[in-house]
Input
Amino acid sequence: MICFFLANVYAPCDVRGKRELWNQLGSFSRSRAKSNLCVCGDFNSVCLEEERRSRGMVVRGVDTDFFNSFIADSHLMDFSLGGRHFTWFSGDGLSMSPLDSFLLSEELSSRWYNCAQIALQRGLSDHCPHYSQFR
Amino acid sequence: MAKKKEVVNLVRGRKQGIVSIKETKLERNEDFVGTLLWGSSHLNFSFKPSRGAAGGILTMWDSGTIEVDFSSSFENVIVFGGRLKKDDMLFSG
Output
């Protein structure tokens, strides 16, 4: 039987709240760096600023830097999303971002190297449901 | 109400291993969580209430697929550690 850890995350929208979250989650992830760890969530952040489509010119560079540092320092890997590019849409349909994903520890990603995450069509929620088949 | 129905259909549409739901807007573990127990007595869950209508996280797992050893939470996060009993698993979010 495979032992594993799972963290289900719902990140706040404000930069300060997210910073605290990345600190806490980073310590948790590092303490399990050699384990099979999956961090799944609505991170309310993106790895690349270009991944966002926004109606306004919003500078969120610091936010992106913190998120990337958290992923790198926690030795986690983001793997590609299939099905559609964005997982979140604003009510007016003008802004969209890939905010949801599964991050895997090195150990887990080498075990489940051929897994992919698939985002499904969005329904009533502003987020698309998504799933991943691990085998 | 329509949103809840949509979630129930999504969850029941596939044989799930783990389901994680964010922004549940549920302050209490109400009947809705019970409704989601995809018609199986094999389902367990870990629930973090929302603050008013904001936030709320729910993780559910099929105990036939996963044996959970511990479950805990901190601000904005639910964590658990367990063992996978099968070779493959569907994880939905």
About this structure: The CA atoms of residues 9 and 36 of chain B lie 9 Å apart. The helical segments of chain B are 2-12, 31-36. The first helix of chain B runs from residue 2 to 12.
